[in-house]
Fold this protein.
Amino acid sequence: MAKKGKDYFGLGRIVSIILAIIPVTAWLLGAFTRFTEGKIVAGILRLVFGFWIVWVIDLVLMILKGRILRLLNI
């Protein structure tokens, strides 16, 4: 079961960092995470615009905080 407050389905921090390192995986899982939170617009924006810049930001935040970027909460 997913732990509340952790991204990438509540997986361990090391597994989440490994998944965040792979650009395509981070892109898809980031969008899927936003969709499962009920943030449809944020998920669509991640799919359209979130490949390179958001990937780098997500990678840094995943290493530092264990969470992905939440710029838009709608």
